[in-house]
Amino acid sequence: MRLIIEGGERGERQMALDETMLLLLTKDLIPETVRFWNFKPTTLTLGRFLAVKDWVNEEELRRFNFPLIRRFTGGGPALHDENGEITWSVAIKGNDLMKAYQTIAKALINALSHFDLKGEFSPINDIVVQGKKIVGMAGAIKRNSILVHGTFMYATNPEFMRVIKSPKVKEAERGEAKSRVTTVSLLLGYNISRSEALEALIEGFKSVFNLEDGELTDIEKEFSESLRFKYTNPQWTYLR
């Protein structure tokens, strides 16, 4: 299984590449892949089926000057702090999304154990520590292939969570987004670095998947470049 490690890029590139990987995997044009990367600058992403007005505090989004990207996957809103979060993507063969979540959860739980933290899989698609969300996942299926991506919050600034607005019913039941999440650094009581978080992720995923270092193919680079327009188009971003 191919392992790709990258740095930060703009959200439209990152989402275009993840969607490209899913499409190309369905045609067996690329191998199954694990990719570690991050958004740069800090970005708010929104699940494909959510309405902006229900889930995004646009006043706070403008104040922080964060881009908004609608994902091609489902799931809730996710704040990607360029200085406190590593995003990961897994492109695998299959047609059972829940099974994919469970398998990837094992890798993430093993990564957290690197810091002596006990993570638990919380269906449908979260990892929690001490009852608070530390990892979120979202996925999509196309024919015989699955793409799951998500967050690993090692030092996310909790104040940035103000850009997420929850429906009143959910907020009354579970509290504000800021109070529902945590980070590795908060749990440990000291800040860990990106390199420490990345090392833990690599070891966690290697405990579940047989990974070998690889690179993006030319077709991935070219196809994803042609797909970037989708993620800068307001008609897609404000689809709902």
From TrEMBL:
One of its GO terms (molecular function) is ligase activity. It comes from the Archaea. It holds the Pfam family LplA-B_cat. Residues 28-213 form the BPL/LPL catalytic domain. Gene3D superfamilies: Bira Bifunctional Protein, Domain 2. The keyword Ligase applies. Keywords: Ligase. The keyword tRNA processing does not apply. This is Lipoate--protein ligase family protein. It comes from Sulfurisphaera tokodaii.
